[in-house]
Description:
Low-confidence stretches: 165-176
Shape: globular
Largest sheet: 6 strands, antiparallel
GO molecular function, one term: protein serine/threonine kinase activity
Distance between the termini: 46 Å
InterPro entries: Kinase-like_dom_sf, Prot_kinase_dom, Protein_kinase_ATP_BS, Ser/Thr_kinase_AS
Region (Disordered): 300-323
Number of helices: 11
Structural class: alpha+beta
Mean pLDDT: 86
Order of helices and strands: EEEEHEEEHHEEEEHHHHHHHH
Protein name: non-specific serine/threonine protein kinase
Organism: Streptomyces exfoliatus (Streptomyces hydrogenans)
Amino acid sequence: MDIGPVIAKRYRIKHEIGSGGMGVVWLAHDEHLDRDVALKTMNVTPGLTEDQRTRDAERFQREARAAARLDHTGIATVYDLGEEKGTRFLVMQYVTGIDLEDRIAEQERLSLQETASVGVQIASVLGSVHARDVVHRDLKCRNVVIRTDGVVKVLDFGVAAFLEPGTAKLTTTGERPGSLECMAPEQVLCKPVDHRTDLYALGCLIHKMLTGDPVFEHRSELMLPGLILDSTPTPLRDLRPDTPSDLEALVLQLLAKDPRDRPAHAGEVWQRLAPWLPERGDPAAALTPWAEVDPLRPFRHPMGPEARPVRAWANARRPGRPR
């Protein structure tokens, strides 16, 4: 895709940082405000007529504006949208940190406290967007980033469903957006989705954080839809005996085949995960620089001052550097 080195006379492309069915995400530099941003170029469906392209562009603009109205600490802010050489683009906050997939691979299994710390932050994001009639539809480990300070960001609302009556959708009937690993049964069947679809995906994430493995896996991805529709998830305590029974019950309920059997809303999930959050820490420790990502930090030191990672702290203490 030839979009050029500079988009809209402002965003200088550095390099690709991700791609998927909806488009490509680039690291770019906003030369007007001198900051790095994430710039997502959207794929154009081949074979469309001019009228169809126009309607598609209008839908993209309408839904991008709706996504820009989402306001939560755990959501990457939308800065801009436009079109360059026939390619639509969306400019968002560039979030640095480690994604949940890599964090699990690094740790193999997360502790109960870390799982709860990540889980309640995701539930908080979902509660906020669901209250605005938005469903993510593609919640997965790669779309969850843990910043160095422990704050969790849920990324890529690019395939989100907007449930307001009369709102046109970017996807067409029969299209199945999302990733199979965390796809709910109703998505596999191309049925309508609602907030409980995201809760199923959250159940998949909690299961993987605690066990290191997806709920369902097979050497052939073609077999996954059948497993999602027909197989019963293995109870967590069969895979990790130290799992509390209440937590096991929550995950099994989140993974219910029938959306009506899942928790009523994200707030309920937040409430049921909260007992495993870490206790408040010593205020003095809030000023201690940290060496690595710590999802427990926002709960041990809520609204604490921004202590810096060890490397930045050490650099600031060098002779001649301001402290």
